[in-house]
Specification:
single chain, 277 residues, alpha+beta, Double-stranded beta-helix, three-stranded antiparallel β-sheet, 30% helix, globular, binds succinic acid
Length: 277
């Protein structure tokens, strides 16, 4: 085995999703393996780096080796915390992270990938779960795929908020509806690579041209399908772990944890590169 091969070791964590990468900070920041890691990320959905303990500057520097860093507000790194003293109004919105979602699913071009580092953990809950939406599509019966490929799904911000606030006030509902106009995406994303993935999650409200009941039932059935254990990797965090996920071929959610738990993660995000089409 050559020295170069020892600098990056990959171990698949489940058959369909998640690969652990063992390496060192210098090697990762050099960008030497960036293309290899991007390819592994697309194939495996999630990369796990245990105990890497990156500073925020190293976190963004590593992200930049793999794509174009996106500003979140005006920051390169966003704090993920439910504590209002850390995050203000964003803390309420982040409760939505307890439910399966694709980041920026209300956009034409959702973000490409996220780099999440654990800074402080909750005593209970707080694992992060990922579902491989490429694998979920691949395993659907061929007879169903033909019909599903033609469908278009209406995504609304309201739908993503109702999961944790089922009965909003008039002012809240109006604010949600004004914040983002509904977005229509194909149910099945045909990526430029030719691979296909399901576009689901909490923003998915109903199916164009179907009755509300029929469309919602179908989305519910597909969501159950896509989040079966064989498509899911759940990460039990230690402080200093880094997870990178392909936001275009996975959904994710955090196991609920107490708002006052002190859990704190930092997240860097890569700009999207491809329209949902
Ligand atoms: C997220 O949804 O981006 C955050 C996930 C987490 O806090 O585990």
């Amino acid at each position: 085995m050559t020295v170069a091969m020892l600098k990056l070791k990959k171990t698949d964590l489940t058959p369909r999703i998640g690969t652990e990468i063992r390496s060192d900070i210098e090697t990762l920041l050099s960008g030497k393996y960036a293309a290899d890691l991007r390819e592994t990320l697309e194939q495996r959905g999630v990369l796990v780096f245990r105990g890497l303990d990156l500073t925020e500057d190293q976190q963004t520097a590593f992200a930049k080796t793999m794509g174009k860093l996106m500003l979140q507000g005006n920051k390169e790194v966003l704090s993920i915390s439910l504590d209002k003293s850390v995050n203000g109004a964003l803390a309420d919105y982040l409760i939505g992270s307890f439910y399966w979602h694709i980041d920026m699913a209300m956009e034409d071009v959702p973000s490409r990938a996220c780099f999440l580092v654990a800074r402080k953990l909750s005593d209970t809950g707080g694992d992060t779960l990922f579902a491989n939406t490429y694998a979920a599509w691949d395993d659907l019966p061929e007879s169903e795929k033909k019909t599903l490929e033609k469908l278009r799904v209406v995504h609304t911000f309201e739908n993503s908020q109702r999961v944790f606030k089922p009965i909003p006030t008039y002012a809240e509902l109006k604010a949600w509806q004004e914040f983002k106009r509904p977005k229509v995406h194909p149910l099945v994303w045909t990526h430029q690579s030719g691979r296909k993935s399901l576009v689901l999650g909490t923003t998915a409200s109903h199916v164009e041209g179907m009755s509300l009941e029929e469309g919602r039932l179908l989305l519910c059935k597909l969501q159950d399908w896509a989040t079966q254990p064989q498509f899911v990797y759940g990460h039990k965090w230690n402080v200093g772990d880094l997870l990178v996920w392909d936001n275009t071929g996975t959904m994710h959610r955090a196991e609920p944890y107490p708002i006052d738990s002190g859990r704190l993660m930092t997240r860097a995000t890569l700009e999207g590169e491809e329209r949902v089409a």
